[in-house]
Design a protein that fits this description.
This protein is mostly helical. It has one domain. 41% of the residues lie in helices and 9% in strands. It has a two-stranded antiparallel sheet. The radius of gyration is 14 Å and the shape is globular.
Length: 113
């Protein structure tokens, strides 16, 4: 197995942004193992009941694609949290950008952050 260089965040800080994302039903996760090993992805929070601080038990999206569509919609409506997630994926050239056609307004978002 190849040794990965640690990913340096540019727009996303887990200590600030992960909990609000999880409250919204998703987060950015680094995939471990398999074909997508090392990819950073928007993923639905599968077991919110495992974290009582979230105050909800059922997942909010049926799959990762639905979570990504939500992140995109919220980013376009002006949410800084959601814009940061997409910009972080783009900064690291992650496949989710193409997979879910994210990044229509990245230049505008970068200027506002």
């Amino acid at each position: 197995m190849r040794k990965r260089k640690p990913r340096e965040p540019k727009f996303w800080d887990n200590t600030k942004h992960s909990f609000p994302a999880q409250l919204d039903g998703w987060d950015l996760f680094e995939v471990c193992g398999g074909e997508q090993d090392g990819e950073l992805q928007i993923q639905v929070l599968q077991c919110p009941a495992d974290n009582p601080e979230l105050n909800y038990e059922e997942k909010k999206f049926k799959d990762d694609e639905a979570a990504s569509a939500h992140v995109e919609r919220m980013a376009f409506s002006g949410s800084e949290l959601h814009q940061r997630a997409i910009l972080e994926l783009n900064h690291h050239k992650q496949p989710d950008i193409k997979r879910f056609s994210l990044m229509k307004r990245k230049k505008q978002w970068k200027q506002s952050l």
